[in-house]
Design a protein that fits this description.
37% of the residues lie in helices and 17% in strands. It is an alpha+beta fold and 290 residues long. The chain has 2 domains: 76 residues, Phosphorylase Kinase, domain 1 (2-Layer Sandwich), CATH 3.30.200; 189 residues, Transferase(Phosphotransferase) domain 1 (Transferase(Phosphotransferase), domain 1). Helix 4 packs antiparallel against helix 6 and helix 6 runs antiparallel to helix 9. The longest helix is centred in the middle third of the chain and has 20 residues. CIPK serine-threonine protein kinases interact with CBL proteins. Binding of a CBL protein to the regulatory NAF domain of CIPK protein lead to the activation of the kinase in a calcium-dependent manner. InterPro entries: CDPK_Ser/Thr_kinases (IPR050205), Kinase-like_dom_sf (IPR011009), Prot_kinase_dom (IPR000719), Protein_kinase_ATP_BS (IPR017441), Ser/Thr_kinase_AS (IPR008271). This is Protein kinase domain-containing protein.
Length: 290
Amino acid sequence: MSDQLNKDYDVGALIGRGRFGAVFRCVSRTSGELFAVKSIDKALLTDLLDYDPSREAKLHRLAASGNPLAVQIHADYEDDESIHLVLDFCPGPDLFRHIADKGAPISEPEAAKLMEDLMEAIAACHRRGVVHRDVKPENVVFDGEGRIRIVDFGLAGWIGDGGGMREPVGTPYYMAPEVVRGEKYGEKVDVWSAGVVLYTMLGGLPPFYGETSAEIFDSVRRGSQRFPFRVFRGVSSAAKDLLGRMICKEVSRRFSAEQVLKVEAVLNADFFGVVGVDGDARQRGLCVHR
């Protein structure tokens, strides 16, 4: 660990491990406040096009500034072996564990509230020109007040200059088809990923499946999500309509994060169970799935 990090923080128990390093509890020696420190092993950084730790710190700060639904970064340190990012401590669990512990599918009102917070976090990132590029349940963590926070900006990209991106990064189940195809893409890849998260919460299974990454990518390229009656018979037309607008192969027709937030089905958790929702959905000019 960095000498200056150890001078400023008492680094404690291991919380978890990731592709490029580990996360530990740490306590400020000045204030006694609890944080988490993400330590990135430089020896594992074989391709800086795939992951650039200096970019992570910069884009994380930008995305989290004024964004209470993103984990904040408080300090960064570097030594010969590692780069260390001091972050808000969130006791968890992450959304993946939350869904698994409760047993998917979860109720529409709960899914609506979780999705509202997640889309608020994503929209705030996009307003600042930052695309997360790895939205998935494991990167959505509950804080000490029971509210979700988006974490891990290791694969984040920048579009603030009006440009796009081409790097094929992300987690296969949640990658948008334009990423898989190697095309230029923008911030709507996060909306696709969030749609996959919502589909999984409501259906208990991902919309695109395969035994290998190649099989998953083939399924994503086809991009025609279905709503099996056995699984989705209790899911409202409004929820399925929203999914169709988020998991939409045509990028021009896919909702932006801001558009998702304008949909009443997300903003009002009670809406997902309301009788007569089909008519309201038609009035908004959406496609109601049958």
